[in-house]
Amino acid sequence: MTKRATQGAAILGAILLIAGSLLTWISVDVGFASFSSAGTDNIEGKLTAVAGVVLLLAGLVVTRDDAVGLISRYVGLIAAVFGGIVLMLEYLDVRERIAETDPATATATVGMGVWVTAVGAIVGIGAIVVFLVGWIRAEA
Fold it and tell me: At 28, is the secondary structure helix, strand, or coil?
């Protein structure tokens, strides 16, 4: 995989992290009304959005072969992993809230934003790991 393609993957992961944070994370239908909550309606979604912005900034300079490029790889990896961990914890919370919902009176579902954010974190982590493995091989 070329540096530009890997950089594109890192940027795509960042955009998906940010976009997923803005989308619905949980929807509840109580028959006569529906409610939904976007990721950014809570602190976890704001944290994943910030992680996406950090990953995006890192992704823009990750192809550099100097100290800035190396630092951006580590910062990008930390941001993507952080976003993934925050999302995983929030997903467990959402699943718990769904389990507590009385199925006779309401239907609750995990929203699309959770899945988009998860894909963004996975793509971002993968892209940055490819950069780090390439750097390690070049140094060896």
Answer: strand
pTM: predicted TM-score of the whole model, two decimal places:
0.86
In the CATH hierarchy, which fold is given to the domain comprising 3-139?
A: Butyryl-CoA Dehydrogenase, subunit A; domain 3 (1.20.140)
Sign of CA dihedral 91, 94, 96, 102: negative
HEC readout, 52-97: HHHHHHHHHHCCCCCHHHHHHHHHHHHHHHHHHHHHHHHHHHHHHH
Q: How far is CA 13 from CA 54, 67, 96, in A?
A: 11, 23, 27
Label residue 57 exposed, middle or buried (CB < 10 Å: 0-12, 13-18, 19+): middle
Q: How confident is residue 139, by pLDDT bands cut at 50, 70 and 90?
A: low
